[in-house]
Amino acid sequence: xxxxxxxxxxxxxxxxxxxxxxxxxxxxxxxxxxxxxxxxxxxxxxxxxxxxxxxxxxxxxxxxxxxxxxxxxxxxxxxxxxxxxxxxxxxxxxxxxxxxxxxxxxxxxxxxxxxxxxxxxxxxxxxxxxxxxxxxxxxxxxxxxxxxxxxxxxxxxxxxxxxxxxxxxxxxxxxxxxxxxxxxxxxxxxxxxxxxxxxxxxxxxxxxxxxxxxxxxxxxxxxxxxxxxxxxxxxxxxxxxxxxxxxxxxxxxxxxxxxxxxxxxxxxxxxxxxxxxxxxxxxxxxxxxxxxxxxxxxxxxxxxxxxxxxxxxxxxxxxxxxxxxxxxxxxxxxxxxxxxxxxxxxxxxxxxxxxxxxxxxxxxxxxxxxxxxxxxxxxxxxxxxxxxxxxxxxxxxxxxxxxxxxxxxxxxxxxxxxxxxxxxxxxxxxxxxxxxxxxxxxxxxxxxxxxxxxxxxxxxxxxxxxxxxxxxxxxxxxxxxxxxxxxxxxxxxxxxxxxx
Length: 500
Description:
CATH architecture of the largest domain: 2-Layer Sandwich
Largest sheet: 6 strands, mixed
Strand order of the largest sheet: 8-7-6-9-11-10
Number of strands: 14
CATH superfamily of the largest domain: Exopolyphosphatase. Domain 2
Number of helices: 19
CATH class of the largest domain: Alpha Beta
Number of domains: 3
Oligomer: single chain
Distance between the termini: 58 Å
């Protein structure tokens, strides 16, 4: 099949990895293929929060199969996102480095609220049009997401560290379902979810939906037993808990609709779901068709259509911290011109990738002065801290960290960025940003006519040529540019300034 109009999304969940391939047809996303594999990475975190070799191997083997299926897809047709287990894993870089190579595409570790946003995006796109205020709940393997929204717009998003795998391991460690174990699990879940009573209480929504994971599994069991289709009720939960207590352990459970791979974690998921029902005064929850992977695909399509939520979030953050918008635009225009010069010798870099570098530099320029609202002294450090410790919708954790490092490095010494300076594209972005800030120091549009900037990426060097009459016309700028040479002396890069 031609891949031109196809999109693929991969959800690296704590219990299962899922691959969804879809095709846009008359504005609707039509499923072409869906593959789910139980990987149970959430069970593979040891006491030090490191993924075991066995857990990593299970993930790699699954991704190899997924990679074969989407071979031939282009980067802008695929999005792979990882959730709570890889958010927690201290050795996630070890897993991800090999995983990306095996899959053949980048893998994004997303923050909890970004996961919640994508879940709501997937659910809302696949629901009938309605003016209802919606509550969406997704109980995954190691986290639970809750979202309030209307139409396709999410208004409140939260992620809580409680899920079916984590709770099954903690409260049913020997696989035994007992009344006391369920009571302890439900009390503990309510303690974690306590603040949800305020944010998501019954006054804030009209209809409740459950997405994927535990809700889907519970719905399957209840439907097979004759309960209303695609609906979870309090009575249904009580019935299912009674069946688990009578079975006592997964091996004894004989219920239509419950898959073998779900049996070991259904107890923990049921306890969390019961806690959600009690806390939020839910009487019935409808099973939603959409899920995280669908949201990831819709977000991918939106980006192609220039409706990137990341740009609006950068605007929001810049406005919130009162940055000088005219200066940000001035620095952005200058930095992008300089980056184009620096990338001139990297002719093998695909156009789409070059555009992404320019876009991310543009965001860094918009946010480089966010720390000034806190303190003018060391404002670049404050700005970097803000970006490393905020949830911006649409961004992965790695993207936010890269932006934070550009903001941190846009002035001052460079030794603090030693590891990042191994990445040529990062160095080019950083150099363009630093030079743009220097050239725009007087907060007016700079004169670039007397400057010529070239880069030898292989030789890890760059040279800025300045015409003598330009230096005479702009002596302060010329002085600051000559000083910039010294900033690069303690790095592996050479930055030369030459007067022609």
